[in-house]
Each structure stands twice: as C-alpha cells, then as structure tokens.
C-alpha cells in the first residue's frame, strides 16, 4: 500500500509555491487519453487496447521510460467504441435531460503499471489541473474497466479510497466480490464463483470424473481454478494434474507443461486461462502435434474468434460457458462508421485502419514491404474481424455498465431511493460527486431496451447466467460457437444446468474419452 501511495503522489503532482495560489505540477509522464470528450459528468474507461508491453531497460541514472504498448487488440478496441456508442445514445435520449456525459478512455495495455497510470490520470484529471490551481476533485465520476482481474483489483483498490465507482465488463475473479477490500467495485459479468461451479457440473454431467487442469498464473486463473477444484471435489471429479502458465513464461516452461498434458492419461482438460495465455499455450500444443483432447474452457477465451480460426484442428469440440449473446440495436452501424475520418489526428484510429486493411499511411522503414497506401475510403463492412464481429457478448457488458451509471445519475437527480432503504440524496447537475453515484449504483434496478433487467447484489455482482457453447465446424469449415445448453445460478440447484438438446461435437474420438473415464473413474 505504501508503494501504491508513492506512485499515486508521483502522478497526482505536487503543490508548487509559485505565486499565492498553489499550482499543480505534474511529476513523471503525462498520460493522455485515447478518446476524450467533455461533458457535465465524465465517465472514464480503461481497456486493453494494446496487448503487448515492452519494458525499457533501467539505468538507474534517469527517470525510467514508460512501458511501450503495441499490437492492437481489435476486440478491446470494439469495447472502447461500444462505450462511446452508449454515451452518445444516452446523450441523444431523454434519460438525462439537460446533462451531457463526457468520457476519457485510456489504454491499460493489460498490465498493472499502465493501468495504474491510467486510473491515476482519471482520478486526478491532470490535463485540467496542470498549470492551474488544484481543484482537489476527481476528474471522472465513474470508471468502466478493465478487462483483466489482476489490473482491475489494482485499480479498484486505489479508486475505492476516493469513493469512485469502478464497473468492470470482463473481470470475473471471485476475489472482487469482497466488499471490505473493493467497496466501490461493481461488474456486469458474473463472478467466477458461479462459473467454477457450472464447469464442475458440466464435467460431472458428461461423466468425466478424471480430468487435467491448467490455468493462468494470475488472479483470474488461480482463484477460478481453486474454486473449480473445490466444486469438482463436491461433484466427485478427480484432478490428475494442475499446471500453470504465464504470458511471460519461457518457452521451455511451456513445453514442459505441454508434455505433462500429453503424457497424462486423462483426455479431458479444463483450462481456466485468459485468451492471451491460451494463445501461448496453443502455439506449443500445435508444435508438439497434440490433438484429440477434449478442451473445456473458461469464458475468457471460449468465444474468441481468433483462437477458433487459428487452432481449429486442436480445438474442434471444445465446450465451455460463455456470457449470453445479445443484440444491441444500432451498434453495428455505429462501429462501421469508425475510422480516421472521424479525427485525422488520432493515431489510434490510423493504426486501427492499418491493421484492419493491411495498408500504411506512410512508407515503412524497409521500403520493399511498402505495398499499399491507405486511402481512407476502404470499407469496414467488407471486413470480417474481431472489431466487426457482431456476436456481442462482452461488448453488451460495456453497454450495460454505461447505462447503469447513467441510470444512477438519473435516480440521483430525481431524488430517488439509494441502495440503502429510505435514504435519498438530492443534488443538482453542477455538484454531482462520485460518492453519490456510488450510493445510487448500489440500488439501481432498471430494464434495458434489450429487455434485460440490470441490478447488482450486495457484492456488486449481476445475475449469473451463461450459455453453454460448443465449437462446431459449419458447412464452410469455419468454427462456430453453438449454444447447446445454459446455466442459471438463480434457479434451484438441480435445475441450474440444462442442455437444449442440440447436437454436440466432441473432440477426437468420443469413445476414447469414455474408455478413459471407465478406467480411472472410480479410482
Ligand atoms: C451530447 O449532445 C450535445 C448536444 O446535442 C453535443 O454538443 C455533445 O457533443 C454530445 N456529447 C457526446 C458525448 O456525444
Ligand atoms: C446521436 O444523435 C446524432 C445527431 O442526431 C447522430 O448523428 C448520432 O448518430 C446519434 N448517436 C447515437 C449513438 O445514436
Ligand atoms: C432543462 O433546462 C431548461 C432551461 O434551462 C429548463 O427550462 C428545463 O426545466 C430543464 N429540464 C429539466 C428536466 O431539468
Ligand atoms: C508434427 O507434425 C509435423 C507434420 O506432420 C511434423 O513435421 C513434425 O515433425 C511433428 N512434430 C512433432 C514434435 O512431432
Ligand atoms: C490536428 O493537428 C494539427 C497540428 O497539430 C492542428 O493544427 C489541427 O487543428 C488538428 N486537427 C484537429 C481536427 O484536431
Ligand atoms: C434465471 O432464473 C431466474 C429465476 O427463475 C429468472 O428470473 C431469470 O429470468 C433467469 N434468467 C435467464 C437469463 O433465463
Ligand atoms: C443431430 O444430428 C442428426 C444426425 O446428423 C440429425 O439427424 C439431427 O437432425 C440433428 N439434430 C439437431 C437438433 O440438429
């Protein structure tokens, strides 16, 4: 905590003694938002727009250079655009008359340090205060993000100290339900507490009582797998091995894990991993020609189209629980309008265009790869990639999170009830404080246009429902995620998990899985 505080003070700035008024000066590097718009109320956003970080070498003689982030993640870029869409839609609607919502969206790079920089910048609002008097007020009223549990815990801890609500669309660690540690945290994605139980029920249902387990060595994987192993024990399922992988693990380490998998007798493998680590693992699985495994996946990667197309021969037949599919009217049209023409100076929009269309705005250093120049008239609707993918699951969670904040502001301005019985806070639009929005988020309960009811339980968690999806090849030999069942934690225990009766594709030879189960099932 002491270290955290030091980092915070470093970013927030110091009070200079110039003139009579205390001036804010910034220490360290300024953090600039990728997208920003002013409003009466401001919502911050932190997404993993770039998935790779590179640390600069430390010399201990200069201020360390910030991490550089590279490799744009198109799905995360879509999350950011979905947030902008939701805010514009609310701005256009009658939900908040006479109030405009602004936003500030940062890149957290999926890494703790950039996320801390982003959240500090969001809380201190340095762009506004540098060179001016320190207002001592946070710049944003709520923060949407992040996409990983580890970075979300770090961000929520600091935001909690300032009563700023944090709503994650994708952080599922059960640890975040602890309201003593994360008093201002909410999420629109179910806690892994439920997913782990659902996975145990699934494995039991198909008679796989002898399984291997593999996880990311971070909050997401460790907490999720610990809960799964506990729930599996209750269901009478035994774990043959339990291995971990980190994004930064050396190749030999990953090869060792893959050889454990290939030597094991269980052919069913439960993988509680984030999509980035899954990619690293599968690269090695492919190198070692390991096929015929029945993969059971966690929601972080179970609907990842990139993995599905790259590793279709390994992953055909995969099963796992996914966030329910949803349709957000108007979002696709909005996404198809995104491009450099919206803001010629935005380097991220240009980078997005280059990656999407394989063109360049200016010649690269090595001239020979200079093939096509971006014209700006390329058409997004002709493209099929994770940005234009309309099978919305997590994006809908971003959409719902923004609406939950807006609805709370609406309730606040209309003097409605807060989460506490008989407590009302009334305020006017010029003096809305994050802590007031927080009180109303706790009691928010409303129906979305899409028909979904939004509310949070006392832990800040939403209703826990999942689709059971199965990876099947369609006629075009493309992988599709077919819904073959569902899980609803609100139903009585014996009704929570059910199959729809749709055909299921199994990995490899289904008989093999059954034989293994016979040999080891009762051991
Ligand atoms: C909200 O609407 C107002 C007035 O129509 C406009 O000036 C403002 O730019 C809009 N804000 C956003 C975030 O779209
Ligand atoms: C909001 O209204 C403006 C002006 O009418 C329109 O151009 C824009 O597409 C609308 N945005 C959304 C998300 O509905
Ligand atoms: C919006 O502002 C106008 C002019 O300031 C005012 O007459 C009107 O009552 C306001 N509406 C609401 C719902 O506050
Ligand atoms: C995997 O299969 C390919 C082609 O069938 C082969 O060239 C390669 O040596 C195999 N690798 C291993 C590790 O068995
Ligand atoms: C883009 O940047 C240039 C140079 O910094 C500036 O003159 C121009 O006004 C900017 N354009 C927009 C749309 O912000
Ligand atoms: C889950 O079950 C509860 C309780 O029966 C029900 O109210 C809710 O609509 C169900 N959710 C879904 C998505 O089916
Ligand atoms: C399942 O597969 C069988 C055989 O291929 C087919 O006859 C049947 O219609 C399929 N059922 C469903 C629900 O798709």
Describe, in short, the structure shown.
The chain has 523 residues and is an alpha/beta fold. It is built from 16 helices and 20 strands.
The CATH class name of the largest domain reads: Alpha Beta
CATH-defined fold name of the largest domain? Rossmann fold
| Fraction of residues in H or I helices | 25-40%
Strand content: 15-25%
Overall average pLDDT: 84
Q: Which ligands occur here?
A: 2-acetamido-2-deoxy-beta-D-glucopyranose
As residue ranges, the low-confidence spans are 1-21, 128-133, 510-523
| DSSP E strands, number | 20
Largest sheet, described in full?
8 strands, mixed
Shape: globular
Q: Termini, distance in Å?
A: 46 Å
Which second-level CATH architecture of the largest domain applies? 3-Layer(aba) Sandwich
Spatial ordering of strands, largest sheet: 12-11-13-14-15-18-19-20
| Helix/strand class | alpha/beta
């Amino acid at each position: 905590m002491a270290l955290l505080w030091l980092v915070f003070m470093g970013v927030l700035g110091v009070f200079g003694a110039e003139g009579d008024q205390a001036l804010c000066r910034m220490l360290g590097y300024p953090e600039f938002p990728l997208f920003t718009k002013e409003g009466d109320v401001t919502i911050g956003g932190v997404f993993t727009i770039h998935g790779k970080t590179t640390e600069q070498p430390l010399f201990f003689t200069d201020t360390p250079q910030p991490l550089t982030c590279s490799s744009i993640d198109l799905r995360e870029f879509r999350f950011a655009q979905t947030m902008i869409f939701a805010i514009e839609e609310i701005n256009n609607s009658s939900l908040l008359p006479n109030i405009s919502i602004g936003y500030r969206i940062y890149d957290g790079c999926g890494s703790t340090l950039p996320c801390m920089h982003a959240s500090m910048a969001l809380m201190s609002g340095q762009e506004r205060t540098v060179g001016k008097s320190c207002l001592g007020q946070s710049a944003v009223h709520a923060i949407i993000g992040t996409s990983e549990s580890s970075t979300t815990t770090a961000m929520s801890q600091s935001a909690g100290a300032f009563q700023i609500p944090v709503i994650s669309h994708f952080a599922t660690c059960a640890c975040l339900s602890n309201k003593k540690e994360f008093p201002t945290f909410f999420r629109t994605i179910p806690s892994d507490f439920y997913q782990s139980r659902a996975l145990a029920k699934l494995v039991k249902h198909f008679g796989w009582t002898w399984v291997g387990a593999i996880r990311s060595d971070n909050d997401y994987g460790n907490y999720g797998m610990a809960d799964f192993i506990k729930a599996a024990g209750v269901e009478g399922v035994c774990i043959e091995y339990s291995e971990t992988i980190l994004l930064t693990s050396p190749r030999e380490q990953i090869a060792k894990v893959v050889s454990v998998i290939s030597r094991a007798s269980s052919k069913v493998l439960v993988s509680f991993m984030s999509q980035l680590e899954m990619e690293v693992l599968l690269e090695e699985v492919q190198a070692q020609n390991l096929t015929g495994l029945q993969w059971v996946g966690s929601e972080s990667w179970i609907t990842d189209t990139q993995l599905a197309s790259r590793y279709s021969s390994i992953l055909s037949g995969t099963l796992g629980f996914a966030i329910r599919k949803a349709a957000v009217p108007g979002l696709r049209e909005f996404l198809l309008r995104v491009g450099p023409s919206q803001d010629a100076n935005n380097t991220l929009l240009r980078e997005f265009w280059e990656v999407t269309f394989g063109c360049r705005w200016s010649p690269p250093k090595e001239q020979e790869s200079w093939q096509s120049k971006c014209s700006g008239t390329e058409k997004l609707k002709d493209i099929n990639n994770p940005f234009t993918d309309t099978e919305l699951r997590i994006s809908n969670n971003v959409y719902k999170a923004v609406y939950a904040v807006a609805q709370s502001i609406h309730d606040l301005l209309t003097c409605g009830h807060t989460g506490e019985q008989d407590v009302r806070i009334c305020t006017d639009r010029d003096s809305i404080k994050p802590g007031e929005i927080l009180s109303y988020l706790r009691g928010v309960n409303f129906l979305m246009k899409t028909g979904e009811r939004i509310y949070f339980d006392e832990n800040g968690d939403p209703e826990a429902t999942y689709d059971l999806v199965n990876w099947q090849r369609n006629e075009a030999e493309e992988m599709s995620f077919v819904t073959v069942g569902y899980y609803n934690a609100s139903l009585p225990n014996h009704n929570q998990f059910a199959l729809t009766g749709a055909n299921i594709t199994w990995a490899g030879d289904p008989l093999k899985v059954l034989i293994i189960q016979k040999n080891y099932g009762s051991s």
